[in-house]
Each structure stands twice: as structure tokens, then as C-alpha cells.
């Protein structure tokens, strides 16, 4: 069933996302110093699969409305952000790769900014980089491919790699720019070990690629299915911002 995506619902979802992340951990009475630490790894079950969100990094950005809701009336924008306890001026960004344990393989979706956060989050989840069997790149913005290499050496030495063919080819066809420079340093050295896939491809049993082109030339989402349960990894909720508000964040 497809649910209608309204501008109000999208803005409310955007506002609620940081709040949901902030309240994911618990704080003991008497230990609160005014700034609760975020958990680096949070796990849940999807059928027989284990799914773990990994906090690679988080930081604030100004210009929330201009970036994501430029054409939304100020009164509506302010009301919705107030209802969801979110500043109308600042948005908190969270960079959260996802680890999926299929029972046979450890599959990592995206790798973060490349500042060491992904290996720290994996360590908190009890996983070492050499234990990762598959690395899936949803799209090639720098905050998703930055952790592929560490000091010019593959961060996940035993993994096979999966990425969308349209995504890789699409960026390379643009010529040199900020993103393609990062791709050249992070993705291209692993191209011979990478399987470039199309819409509908199976990454592993229970994991299916779903084309979601638009955010980038060949952005892929992935459907997880296990034990009658389903989950779609969208990788960037920004897709919904762009669909609803018709604008792309200025920094991208």
C-alpha cells in the first residue's frame, strides 16, 4: 500500500527524526549534566535478521527552513517545528549507516564521513571491520562513501562491495567536481571488487535493491524481508524533502 506524502507529514517527520534519535538512549537519574550522549549503536530484530543503526557522526546546521522548506508558509513551518520541539532555525544532522546480520553474512549499508566514526560505532556493536562480508553503497555522496578507505587502505578488507551501476556511471559522466573527487579516492580503487547492480537485484537473501533515482543519479534504496516482516532502508530522508519542497539542500 502506498501512503500519500504530504508537505505537512514530511516536515513533521523531519522534525521528529532528531527527537527520536535523541530519546533512543536512557539516562540514569542524577547523572544528567544537561547533554545526554547519543548511543553509537542501536539494534532490533526484523524477523530473523538483526538490524543495527550506527551513529557515524552528528552536527547542527543553520538555515533549516531555507534548505528544506523554502516554499512552506512561515506560520505552518513554525507551528509544526514547535509541535515537534525542534528549532525553526537549526536542524541536527545524523549520519547513520546500517548493519544487517542476515544470519549468513554481515552487510553494511554505507560507511559514513570517513572520520573514524563508523569503526567506533561498529566496535560498540561488537563488530570489527574485518568481519564485514558485504558493503552496500546506497549512493555516492561523500557522507556515505567516506569510510570506505582509511589512510588509502580499504577499511573493510574482507568485504565484497555492491553499488548501483547508474549511480557510479552517472557521477563519472559529470566530469570533475567535489563529489567525483571523493569517488575517485574512495570508490574507484575498489571498483574491481564491486558488483554494480540494477533495480531489482538481490544483494543477499532477503535484501533487494529498489531504484530511487533523483536524490543522486542512481540512488538505491533496499528492501529487507525476513519472517514476514519488511523494512525499506532509504539511506537519506532528504529524498522526501526534495519531493515535497522542490529544493535541494544548499550544501549538496
How would you characterize the overall build of this protein?
With 252 residues, the chain is an alpha+beta fold. It has a single domain, classed as Metallo-beta-lactamase, Chain A (4-Layer Sandwich), CATH 3.60.15.10. Helix content is 27%, strand content 27%. It has eight helices and 15 strands. The strands form four sheets. Strands 1-2-5-6-7-10-11 form a seven-stranded mixed β-sheet. Strands 12-13-14-15 form a four-stranded antiparallel β-sheet, with no helix packed on it. A hairpin with a 4-residue loop joins strand 5 and strand 6. The longest helix is centred in the N-terminal third of the chain and has 16 residues. It is globular, with a radius of gyration of 18 Å. It starts with 6 loop residues before the first helix and ends in a 7-residue tail after the last helix. 33% of the residues are buried. The N terminus and C terminus are likely disordered.
